[in-house]
Amino acid sequence: MEMEAAANGMPVRACGESAKADDGTVALRDVSSLKKEAAGDAAQSAPMPHNDAAPHENFAAARDMRPPLLVVSGPTASGKTGLAVALAERLGGEVICADSMQVYRDMPVGTAAPTPRERRGVPHHLFEFLSPGERFSVARYAELAGQAARGVASRGRLPILCGGTGLYIAALTGDIAYSGEIPENPELRAVLREEAKSKGNLHIWQQLREADPALAEGLHPNNLGRVIRALEVCRASGVPMSEWQRRARQGTSPFQSCVLVLTYRDRELLYRRIDARADDMLARGLADEARRLAASGIGATAAQAIGHKELAASGIGATAAQAIGHKELAAYLRGEQSLAQAADALKRSTRRYAKRQLTWLRGVEGAHWLEADTLGSPEAVLEAALAVAQEWMAAVRQGK
């Protein structure tokens, strides 16, 4: 997985003081270490030197303060993993998953979970630790990821949250409470699921759009589990989920966070990376992985995390189909179209997903946007990200 970053000719600012151009990107070009010009395709990631320095004693000494949390996010195929690992090497950090697919094991092709080689010896937490049959909620994620982040900080190291699942990131950086206050309603949930089977996911999503348009805007109709949960919350409490989230954000986050968002100024470059990743996943056996998981059977939570039901029609099993996350393979698996046609459909769907991720990320206050194609090389990307992270870390140590 590659790395990326952004620049547009203005000085670097600390998190919360980010200078923004008219298009909202954070300016990073004045970093002195960025003098190397682009030499080659930024899609190629060079290994970065490992930092053997001692852990951050300043973080360990301040255990009574809110722990620091560096977030590396961005659209799919943007290079989050490579940058997060490189930052961990240079800053003495450990990486924590913020991807709703990569928490599941036995699905390495479909989830694009980092391989041992890509992890480069950096400790990783909450990756591939759940069976696809296990139920997993955002509330449970927030509990486990919070524990992992506090544990990393207590050892004097920097927790680095890496992924593109907005709800997971918000659960740690925005102090959004997802558990406890609102009881579950299994009967209503069952009714809505039956309704989805008979009338389709879009019908259920349209109900959410009427009840909670702000939340519906950020959820795909095929993310059925979370659409149903949002309707359940609204009907049980009389208060939309988006309002519960707004109230929760008024509290204090348990972490001092800095968010880096990786993207490309030229959207076509991002799309080419998405296309290349889709081709690679298919070449590495995505369809075979789908069939294998269907034979073993997986649970509803994995299916909900990904949110695609359409593979069920292929006959390989409803939950397995959803867990793979690539509905466009359905016709291919049924023998109705070629693999090339399925690949094209997969690429289009993944591009739409990347657009939704970018829409959510634009709402993250104080985020630092880094454009890989503007900086031009993985080394420049890393140095730009380091400049932001180190200034933020210095402010954390000083108690600012």
SSE diagram, text form:
Elements: H1 57-61, E1 68-73, H2 80-91, E2 93-97, H3 108-111, H4 116-119, E3 124-125, H5 138-154, E4 158-162, H6 166-173, H7 186-199, H8 201-211, H9 213-216, H10 224-237, H11 241-249, E5 256-263, H12 267-283, H13 286-296, H14 300-306, H15 318-324, H16 330-333, H17 339-361, E6 368-371, H18 372-375, H19 378-397
Parallel strand pairs: 1-4, 1-5, 2-3, 2-4, 5-6
Overview of this structure, please?
This protein is an alpha/beta fold and 400 residues long. It has three domains: 32-168 and 255-267 and 365-397, Rossmann fold, CATH 3.40.50.300; 186-245, Histone, subunit A (Orthogonal Bundle), CATH 1.10.20.140; 271-354, no CATH class. The chain has 19 helices and six strands. The chain has helices at 57-61, 80-91, 108-111, 116-119, 138-154, 166-173, 186-199, 201-211, 213-216, 224-237, 241-249, 267-283, 286-296, 300-306, 318-324, 330-333, 339-361, 372-375, 378-397; strands at 68-73, 93-97, 124-125, 158-162, 256-263, 368-371. It has a six-stranded parallel sheet, sandwiched between helices. α5 (138-154) packs across α6 (166-173) and α8 packs parallel to α10. It is globular. It starts with 56 loop residues before the first helix and ends with a helix. Mean pLDDT is 76; it is low at 1-50, 60-64 and 300-326.
Average pLDDT: 76
**Relevant CATH superfamily of the largest domain:** P-loop containing nucleotide triphosphate hydrolases
Order of helices and strands: HEHEHHEHEHHHHHHEHHHHHHEHH
- What structural class is derived from the secondary structure elements? alpha/beta
Cα Rg: 21 Å
List low-pLDDT spans.
1-50, 60-64, 300-326
| Beta-strand content | 5-15%
| Distance between the ends | 34 Å
The first-level CATH class name of the largest domain: Alpha Beta
The overall number of domains is 3
The CATH topology of the largest domain turns out to be Rossmann fold
DSSP, total strands: 6
Amount of helix: 40-55%
